[in-house]
Amino acid sequence: METHNYTRTGKERSNQMKVEQIKADSASERVVKQILSNLETGELKPGDRLPTQEKLGIMFGVGRSSIREATNALAIMGYLEIIQGRGSFIKSKEPAPKNTPPPLDRLVENANLFNLIEIREVLECYVVQKAAERADDEHLSQLKHTVDNLEECRKDVGKFITNDLAFHLALALAAKNREIGELVELIHVTINNRISVAFTTSRQDKVIKAIETARKIYEHVIAGEKNQAVRCMKNHLDTTKQALMNELQSRPAHTK
Question: Which pTM does this prediction carry?
Answer without folding.
Answer: 0.56
